[in-house]
């Protein structure tokens, strides 16, 4: 039987939260940084089973059981290693490969790649402070980068000549090309990065595994990144995470921006928990990594079309990772600015804090997204929107939370789409749909006119109107001489009238109990009398207006 290499098992651990895996079998409660529950491996009444989401392990302080998602799946389901891997791969939505265990030679080769990228980072950094790199240094300092920031992030400069190819002339080409730094052309080896401002890309352990180069002459693309290698996969690499990890724990959230300059500036202006995707759109792998650290995420994007598109993609791919412990929000820059520009403005840090603190909650942005991307004033548009919503909700694997969101979204649909009547319906359809057993026909028709012509009132008074069993159909054929003020007065008067009817009914019922000898209701009757008097006075005052 083939063995699985550490790359695949590591991918499982990255994609799957141990809280989700354990939580399918053990009810967990978060206390501090860990989750706690009763151990499934021995009988206990007081929870001593601890699960650490970031580190990806569990430990029972009662029986001593300890492990990760693989060992938990094996032990809790009495499975062998292969069966556990298959089950976890199915949960993660990835195919199980038939990889062999890495050899010592393969491990040594990867280590040699890191040696090359680390040495290259030092060369680029040194070049930034030499005459060839003066214009690159001037550019980055104008962007507000201090010497300390430049040193911390290892920023550098790649000159026009093939400096890396020359420095590693005695290194086998296959090793150089495997790092993405050097390519071979018709006239020999040449550097992939030339005339670029260089940003080293660190893995979670702080090792340089790749680079991002920014053009300095206005040429496009603005950024080019190391191609995917054995060490580096854009879909799984988050820029700035090695610096942000501590702050994500401390501030109980992560902030996601669009680019590395924004991430660096945010980190150095009091928002240390900020990170950015790299060279590609936000991916499921990025979200999985962030959610293992903390399920609270603020997506902070530019207010332009690209920023809106990025936010919409984030909304789509976040669904499988949502839990009732998640706090997902969306913030946008105004005036075409990016975070870097906001931070450099007057009161920049204060302005950015306001933007982050006022970020839209998930459901608010979700509703904005739906109404922006679907023509919800037409039946076809509403149908398409509801199909998209249904598909999105099905992606949520926390089924209790899925049901809660479904209820909230259905309420929004009813209040905003189905309370606003379609004025093209026929009179017959309208009369068929209207069911108002508690009001007369004149009142019913008046309410229908108000809903047709003043839908904002229908939304404001939706809770009351639903008690009258108003339908969702309308024709708009009834025409009354009623302005907005008179329409609202009519609804409020009706609400008071119905309220008084209810109070009178309650008083009759309590009076019957009093006549039967139940003295305990006397005080309640007095309270009802006072409320009836108060509501009657309000109704009379309203009618006098």
What secondary-structure arrangement, pairings included, does this model have?
Blueprint: H1 6-15, H2 18-23, E1 29-31, E2 34-37, E3 49-52, E4 57-60, E5 66-67, H3 69-77, H4 81-92, H5 104-128, H6 134-142, H7 147-152, E6 156-158, H8 163-167, H9 173-178, E7 182-185, E8 188-191, E9 196-202, E10 208-215, E11 223-225, E12 238-239, H10 241-251, E13 254-256, H11 260-267, E14 274-277, H12 284-293, E15 296-301, H13 305-318, E16 327-332, H14 339-344, H15 348-357, E17 360-361, H16 362-373, H17 379-394, H18 399-418, H19 427-433, H20 441-453, H21 455-460, H22 462-466, H23 484-515, H24 522-544
Parallel strand pairs: 13-14, 13-15, 15-16
Antiparallel strand pairs: 1-2, 2-3, 3-4, 4-5, 6-9, 7-8, 9-10, 10-11, 12-14, 16-17
Helix pairs in contact: 3-4, 17-18, 23-24
Architecture overview:
Strands 12-14-13-15-16-17 form a 6-stranded mixed sheet, sandwiched between helices. Strands 1-2-3-4-5 form a 5-stranded antiparallel sheet. Mean pLDDT is 83; it is low at 420-437 and 471-477. It has 545 residues and is an alpha+beta fold. The N and C termini lie far apart (87 Å). The protein is built from 24 helices and 17 strands. The chain has 4 domains: 6-92, DNA Primase, Chain A (Alpha-Beta Complex), CATH 3.90.580.10; 104-232, DNA primase, catalytic core, N-terminal domain (DNA primase DNAg catalytic core, N-terminal domain, Alpha-Beta Complex), CATH 3.90.980.10; 237-370, Dna Topoisomerase Vi A Subunit, Chain: A, domain 2 (3-Layer(aba) Sandwich); 427-544, no CATH class. It is elongated, with a radius of gyration of 32 Å.
């Amino acid at each position: 039987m083939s063995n699985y290499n550490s790359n695949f098992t590591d991918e499982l651990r990255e994609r799957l939260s141990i809280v989700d895996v354990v939580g399918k079998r053990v009810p967990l409660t978060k206390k501090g940084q860990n989750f706690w529950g009763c151990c499934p491996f021995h009988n206990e009444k007081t929870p001593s089973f601890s699960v650490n989401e970031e580190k990806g392990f569990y430990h029972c302080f009662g029986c001593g059981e300890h492990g990760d998602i693989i060992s938990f799946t094996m032990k809790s389901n009495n499975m062998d290693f292969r069966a556990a891997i298959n089950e976890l791969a199915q949960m993660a939505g990835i195919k199980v490969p038939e990889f062999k265990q890495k050899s010592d030679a393969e491990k040594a080769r990867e280590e040699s790649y890191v040696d090359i990228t680390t040495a290259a980072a030092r060369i680029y950094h040194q070049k930034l402070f030499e005459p060839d790199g003066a214009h690159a240094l001037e550019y980055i300092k104008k962007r507000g980068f201090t010497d300390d920031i430049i040193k911390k992030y290892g920023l550098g400069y790649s000159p026009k000549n093939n400096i890396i190819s020359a420095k590693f002339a005695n290194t086998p080409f296959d090793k150089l090309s495997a790092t993405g730094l050097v390519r071979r052309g018709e006239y020999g080896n040449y550097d992939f990065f030339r005339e670029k401002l260089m940003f080293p890309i660190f893995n979670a352990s702080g090792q340089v595994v790749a680079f991002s180069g920014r053009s300095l002459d206005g040429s496009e693309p603005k950024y080019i990144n190391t191609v995917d290698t054995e060490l580096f996969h854009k879909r799984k690499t988050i820029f700035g995470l090695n610096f942000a990890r501590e702050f994500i724990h401390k501030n109980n959230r992560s902030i996601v921006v669009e680019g590395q300059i924004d991430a660096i500036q945010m980190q150095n202006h009091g928002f240390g928990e900020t990170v950015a995707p790299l060279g590609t759109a936000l991916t499921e792998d990025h979200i999985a990594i962030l959610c293992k650290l903390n399920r609270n995420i603020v997506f902070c994007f530019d207010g332009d079309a690209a920023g809106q598109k990025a936010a919409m993609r984030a909304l789509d791919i976040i669904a499988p990772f949502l839990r009732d412990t998640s706090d997902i929000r969306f913030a946008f820059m105004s005036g075409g600015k990016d975070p870097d520009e906001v931070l450099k403005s007057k009161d920049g840090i204060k302005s950015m804090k306001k933007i982050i603190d006022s970020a839209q909650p998930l459901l608010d942005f979700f509703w904005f997204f739906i109404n922006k991307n679907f023509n919800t004033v037409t039946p076809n548009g509403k149908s398409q929107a509801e199909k998209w919503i249904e598909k999105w909700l099905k992606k949520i694997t926390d089924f209790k939370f899925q049901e809660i969101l479904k209820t909230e979204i259905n309420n929004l649909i009813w209040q905003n789409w189905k309370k606003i009547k379609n004025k093209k319906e026929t009179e017959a359809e309208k009369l068929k749909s209207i069911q108002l057993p508690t009001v007369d026909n004149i009142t019913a028709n008046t309410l229908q006119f108000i809903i047709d012509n003043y839908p904002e009132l229908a939304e404001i008074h939706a809770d009351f109107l639903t008690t009258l069993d108003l339908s969702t159909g309308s024709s708009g054929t009834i025409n009354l001489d009623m302005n907005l003020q008179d329409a609202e007065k009519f609804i409020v008067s009706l609400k008071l009238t119905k309220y008084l009817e209810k109070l009178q009914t309650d008083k009759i019922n309590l009076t019957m109990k009093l006549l039967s000898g139940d003295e305990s209701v006397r005080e309640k009757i007095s309270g009802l009398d006072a409320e009836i008097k108060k509501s009657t006075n309000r109704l009379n005052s309203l009618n006098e207006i």
